[in-house]
Amino acid sequence: MFDRNWDATVRNAALEWLKAQVATYGDVLPRTLLADGFPLDGARVPLLSPKGIFKPRVLREAPLSITTAPNGPYDDAFGPNDLLRYRYRGEDPEHPDNRGLRFAMQERLPLVYLHGLVPGRYVPAWPVFVVGDHRDGLTFTVAVDEERHRWPVARPGSAVHDDAEGPRRRYATAAVRQRLHQRAFRERVLTAYRNECAFCRFRHAELLDAAHIVPDTEAGEPVVPNGLALCKLHHAAFDRNFLGVRPDYVVQVRRDLLDEEDGPTLVHGIQALHGARIRVPRSSVLQPDRQFLEIRYRTFRSA
Ligand SMILES: [Zn+2]
């Protein structure tokens, strides 16, 4: 017999715990933290395991989370209708994990979605709901909801499918997709640059950004060769054309700033970079694309 109250207690506790972790660590969480989970009634409730569809021991019928492994082609996770596609475990629709997700769909149970960005780093999204089951394609479709709407009171046996909540959930799912792209870009760029500012070698990840060379508003792709790991100061300076980077990786400081007289931030943080070569990843496929730099450098010159 499905204990709806206990199931809701566990899910609520998991969602509240996740919210607190994101408030503390930001929305990219380490695997160890998620695998460790939280205590509940003397038991430990982990949020993930090596399996994609995960049901902690404290739950009997339905899984708590679904995970997408890092380094998969991440667009693969999203279908053309702005919903998430989640593959069955294996090829057997009646595998217990697949049955568990189907049960979650029928009971409208909120789940946690964990999207692997790079090994050991995950972006959580919650609550998510299984809204479709496609035996032919061996996939479920999953919609993200917004927390403020809470989840609907479950009506046993009624699958959600595409009801009146459809448009809102599509929008919420698209927003998560956008966030995943941004986080994935940051993780990949910072990893490629070994968590150092390409201009000044500052190495505290909390104060580093992944800057676009060709801005995403101008169709710049979120790929490492279109990125630079920059500290907050240099990111802002680069975006506002205080500095430019020539296609041969040499920094140029805007002429009027070279002539300006001011304190140590201007002298050491900006002026001293004039003529310096930026630090780039060793692997040539990760280095800044010279054509992207050329496009960006033209903007700098006309600033
Ligand atoms: Zn810097």
Question: Could you characterize the architecture of this molecule?
Answer:
The protein is α+β, with helices and mostly antiparallel strands. The chain has two domains: 4-188, PUA domain-like; 195-301, no CATH class. 32% of the residues lie in helices and 20% in strands. The chain has helices at 4-25, 31-36, 96-106, 166-192, 232-239, 255-259, 264-270, 290-301; strands at 29-30, 38-40, 43-45, 53-54, 65-68, 84-87, 111-118, 121-134, 139-144, 208-212, 227-231, 243-245, 251-253. The strands form four sheets. Strands 1, 4, 5, 6, 7, 8 and 9 form a seven-stranded mixed sheet that branches. A two-stranded antiparallel sheet has the order 2-3. The radius of gyration is 23 Å and the shape is elongated. The site of zinc ion has 8 residues, from strand 11 and helix 5.
What is the number of E strands?
A: 13
Report the major sheet. Answer: 7 strands, mixed
Mean pLDDT: 88
- CATH 2nd-level architecture of the largest domain: Roll
Structural Rg: 23 Å
Spans of at least 5 consecutive residues with low confidence: 148-162
Distance between the termini: 69 Å
